[in-house]
Amino acid sequence: MLNGTARKKFLNTAVLTSMVLVFTGFYAQTAKAQNFSVAFGRAESVLNNGDSFSDAIPVTNISDESINIRIYAGDWVRVSGQTSGYSFDLPTGNEDRSLTEWLIFSPERMTIEPGETKDIRFEINVPVDINLNGSYWAVIFIENVPVEEPGDMTPRPDAMQVGISVAFRYALQIYTTIEGTEIRNVTFRSLDIAQAEQGLDITAILENLGNIYLRPEVWLELRDTAGEVVYRQDYIDQTLLPESARNYIFEVRDLSVAPGRYLAMVIADYGATTLIAAQQVLDLTSSNITAQDNVTGGR
């Protein structure tokens, strides 16, 4: 069931993480490679108070053996004081914009035969609360459960056997924004240019001051004194959560431009009517770098 507006984004891959599980005792645990795929990346919806949204996540067994899957919800937590400081691994309840309490899914466990695809159903139910505003999010984890294979069971009183297993999991991001409450506002906190071997490292910190998640387009331009773009480098799109910041690091190598003065600009398109940019003057003749204030500009 869907009320309001929803946009489901299918990605080539979801966020894939892995956990190393260590077991102690008189048996060994076999490590298995990734053995399933998920044709789903993230779900985005724009809903009102009391609305709901549901969808399905297809999971396919790409191995030659039966696999057991565990499904559970978690938070994508903003880590205070860090740029790009998001964590999947803190316990639920550490994120004040979590929608895990609105989220239901089924099943919690399932077995999938080789080549078979099964769906995980999920639903978001937004409560009626006039104080809700901006974006809320959660993560659905899909994790393979390693199969125990007994090893040498001969008791060894002088040593304990240790087995190691790697459990792969997909982190599927679920976002909901409360319609009509969006505040879209970003700023560049800083722009730093440092010399590196065979080039430059240009680092910009972009901060989301609004209340909605963003996936800004961010790129670097070098412009000559006539204003012509002589170099451009695009940055891969990344999610920028509200009240958090991310580092955007551009590694400029083997730059083929004539010696002279250039304007280095890191530009962000965050879905507003204007772009925002941070800039510094770069003197490639003397290798001196002169800083200027961050600026914003229109399209």
* Helix fraction bin: under 10%
Number of helices, where a helix is a run of at least 4 consecutive DSSP H or I residues: 0
SSE string, helices as H and strands as E: EEEEEEEEEEEEEEEEEEEEEE
Rounded average pLDDT: 81
Described by the principal axes of the CA atoms, the overall outline is: globular
Cα separation of the termini:
39 Å
Indicate the proportion of strand residues: over 45%
Please provide the count of β strands.
Answer: 22
- Low-pLDDT residue intervals, each spanning 5 or more residues: 7-14, 18-33, 149-153
Which class of secondary structure composition applies to the elements? mainly beta
Radius of gyration: 24 Å
At CATH level 2, the architecture of the largest domain is Sandwich
Q: Give a short account of the largest sheet.
A: 7 strands, mixed
The CATH homologous superfamily name of the largest domain equals: Immunoglobulins
Total separate domains? 2
Fill in the CATH topology of the largest domain.
Answer: Immunoglobulin-like
Describe this structure in words.
The structure is a single chain. By secondary structure, the chain is an all-beta fold. The chain folds into two domains: 5-178, Sandwich (Immunoglobulin-like); 186-298, Intracellular proteinase inhibitor BsuPI (Immunoglobulin-like, Sandwich). It is built from no helices and 22 strands. Strands 1, 2, 4, 6, 10, 12 and 13 form a seven-stranded mixed β-sheet that branches. Strands 16, 17, 19, 20, 21 and 22 form a six-stranded antiparallel β-sheet that branches. Strand 16 and strand 17 (229-234) form a beta hairpin. It is globular, with a radius of gyration of 24 Å. The chain starts with a strand and ends with a strand.
